[in-house]
User: Which sequence fits this backbone?
């Protein structure tokens, strides 16, 4: 397993990656969201990391966004918000998720941020265990409601109740 992980390249997302992170259409509905993330990366607000295997192509992603204090997540300090953190099913439990979280921690420290925050769906028991094992703690419940424009131009609403989790670095 370690041998496989040594061959994985983690890099910043490129514009040519946008169709690839739709994961064969599974996440096509987020196309415009991903385009916005890429624009924010070019502005220096977000860093989107892609994990790519020479044999398997893109196998994981994690988006890191620098956020100012706000009353919902962190009223008194800036933080790094982790989103769209996905590792394709066949590549889980090989150390890649842990590596990406470690990179998020190092990025936060480099940016002078001492707090990581993410939302994990309440139904994602495996993810919750992974984050707790990585040192995150749940501290609030998020209703998981958000709106976006999908790849066909329709306004969509998602509702996935989540636990907001945080970690100090």
Assistant:
């Amino acid at each position: 397993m370690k041998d496989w992980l040594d061959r994985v390249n983690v890099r910043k997302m490129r514009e040519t990656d946008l169709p690839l992170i739709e994961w064969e259409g599974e996440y096509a509905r987020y196309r415009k969201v991903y385009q916005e993330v890429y624009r924010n990366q070019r502005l220096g607000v977000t860093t989107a990391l892609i994990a790519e295997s020479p044999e398997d192509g893109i196998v994981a992603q994690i988006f890191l966004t620098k956020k100012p204090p706000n009353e919902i997540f962190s009223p008194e300090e800036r933080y790094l918000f982790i989103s769209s953190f996905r590792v394709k099913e066949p590549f889980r439990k090989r150390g890649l998720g842990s590596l990406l979280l470690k990179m998020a921690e190092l990025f936060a420290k480099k940016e002078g941020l001492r707090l990581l925050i993410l939302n994990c769906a309440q139904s994602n028991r495996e993810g919750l265990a992974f984050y707790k094992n990585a040192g995150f703690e749940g501290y609030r419940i998020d209703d998981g409601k958000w709106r976006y424009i999908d790849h066909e131009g329709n306004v969509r609403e998602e509702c996935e109740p989540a636990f907001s989790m945080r970690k100090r670095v």
Notes: The chain is about 25% helix and 35% strand.
